[in-house]
Amino acid sequence: MKPTHHFQAEHLVAGYDQKKVLNDISLEIPSNKISVIIGANACGKSTLLKTMARLIKPTSGGITLDGQSLDRIPSKQLARVLGLLPQSPIVPEGITVSDLVGRGRFPHQSMFSGWSKKDYEAVAEAMEIMNVTELANHHIDELSGGQRQRVWIAMALAQQTDILFLDEPTTFLDITYQVEILDLLTDLNEKYGTTIVMVLHDINLSARYADHIFALRQGELISEGAPSDVITSELIHDIFGLHSTVIEDPVSGSPSVIPIGRHHVRQKEAVWS
Amino acid sequence: MKTQTIEFIQSGRRQRQQRWLLVTGIMGLLAFVLMGAMLLLGNTIYPVQDVVRVLLGEHVSGASFTIGTLRLPRMLSGVLAGFAFGLAGNTFQTMLRNPLANPNVIGITSGSSAAAVFCIIILQASNAVVSIASIIGGLVTVLLLYLFSRSKGSSFSIGRIILVGIGIQAMLNATVSYLLLIGAEQDIPAALRWLSGSLNGIQMHEIGPLFWAVLLCAPILILFGKQLSILELGEQSATSLGVRTDQVRMALILSAVGMIALATATTGPIAFVAFLAGPIAKRLVGPGLSNVIPSGLVGINLVLAADLIGQFAFDVRYPVGIITGIIGAPYLIYLLIRMNQKGDL
């Protein structure tokens, strides 16, 4: 089981040039749980994740891991605890799947060493979890979108971090693959206790797979907690400006948002009241 | 189950490593053969034992001058320059993830040349000053590229770097042409060295600076090979994997530009070697493994082979840069067309 970590952001302000994207966000990531950041487009979800993964330097405020300021931790040492899968990772030309997954071992290797026994084990394990073992010697360019995404996650897993951030890991994937990826990440969390924080677009899948939800609106954290406490039609209206009714997901029992548009509404009076 | 998986991954990787070793070995061997040919061939062909005796420092009448003074510096400068161009070119190409993004195409070599020609013709500067100016010229070009290709808010695109680079290159070449027009006649031969690559008439004492540059910079590029392969995954992945991207990039750029500038100072810009070596090496050694040393070896082979062809294949003797230019230009056009089709430009 992965150790417990205290990952905290305090009064985080960040942005590009003059534009403030995050405005005074304070939060603690629940250790060994799955958290999902939700919010409308351009509300700062991705920026929050990147800032917490030290890809963006905050303008003010601080991030601490187990009480230690993030920018004080040597980069390789931090990379053994905290990993991030970017939204659109860049594929190097002509590389095989196992070599790409193996690059996730970088923070565990010294300058000169080749692959150690441990590296092979970690790569094999990551590829088995993500179900890409048979693809080991294939070129990345030959893979489908869903396979490719599993390979990327396998690379992040080979890094063997206790905390894993994923920026929209299911975007551009068919619903089948979306569910598959989220199932695999849940397996990972249950089996190893890996702390997972991700940005997801699909509110219902978020509510189903998350232990904890962070709801963002225009760079501010407006609500957080268990999905059943947080996801209400008021909150959905607050962050998306959308009318909806929230029902119980018949499959999982988690809240499920049914949007209400201007058309195709059976009893307008009833739902609008 | 897991041991099976490990063995499966291991065997695939071992195959790729074996191919890498084999290809790298063959290229190293070929380089030795070409080095030998550079010493043996010429108007007079001396027996191998005479060549060996000259190399061991013995005096052999006739051979000592031809081999020791003419052919040996020619060969050594070709080896050092080829290695430097190949290694540095591959570094830029991998770092910017595009074969077009190499010092020949995006104006870094021209930056060195322009600075050097300026020092020779306008400042009448000494050789040492010219060498230092050429390094600074290359670095300033990198800085200009960075400033001009940055767009507000977003990270900079490789396509823009290449287009801006081609523009800068044209501007610098025009500057050099202008300097040559206004230059004093006695300075022109020294300045011409900076325009096209040639191994003609290079003397032993002129190789020193390049030798030290390669000795100092090449190990840095080789040592940072692993970091370079992580940088290839993009800024975000590299940072998350614990690479200090800014520092690594700085070390790589400084070493690559240092080697290119001094190689250019010694042999002139041997056209397209920095451009061709990386892609050829990658094609040969296969995917996934380090391309750093193979690129250097391909660079050596390209320069030596092109120089031998230039010297002996035709009635007229052509400098090495003409031959590599003839090989490289069509590849450049091919890449530009392919990039345009992919919509990267």
Structure, described:
The complex is a heterodimer of chains A (273) and B (345). Chain A is α/β, with parallel strands linked by helices. Chain A contains ten helices and twelve strands. The N and C termini of chain A lie far apart (49 Å). Chain B is an all-alpha fold and 345 residues long. Chain B has a single domain, classed as ABC transporter involved in vitamin B12 uptake, BtuC (Orthogonal Bundle). The N and C termini of chain B lie far apart (47 Å). The model of chain B has no long low-confidence stretch (mean pLDDT 88). Chains A and B meet through helix 2, strand 6, helix 3 and helix 4 of A and helix 1, helix 9 and helix 10 of B.
Question: Could you write a compact summary of the structure shown?
Answer:
In chain A, 33% of the residues lie in helices and 27% in strands. Chain A has helices at residues 45-52, 75-79, 97-103, 117-129, 145-158, 175-192, 203-209, 227-230, 233-240, 268-272; strands at 7-16, 19-29, 34-39, 60-65, 68-69, 82-85, 163-167, 195-199, 212-217, 220-225, 243-248, 255-260.
**What is the molecular shape of chain A?**
globular
Q: Termini of chain B, distance in Å?
A: 47 Å
Oligomeric description of these chains: heterodimer
Spell the H/E element sequence of chain B.
HHHHHHHHHHHHHH
Hey, which two chains have the biggest interface? A-B, 47 and 33 residues
Highest-level CATH class of chain B: Mainly Alpha
Strand order of the largest sheet of chain A: 6-7-8-3-9-10
Instruction: Assign the structural class of chain A, choosing from mainly alpha, mainly beta, alpha/beta, alpha+beta, or little secondary structure.
Output: alpha/beta
Uncertain segments of chain B are none
Radius of gyration of chain B equals 21 Å
Named at the architecture level, the CATH assignment of chain B is: Orthogonal Bundle
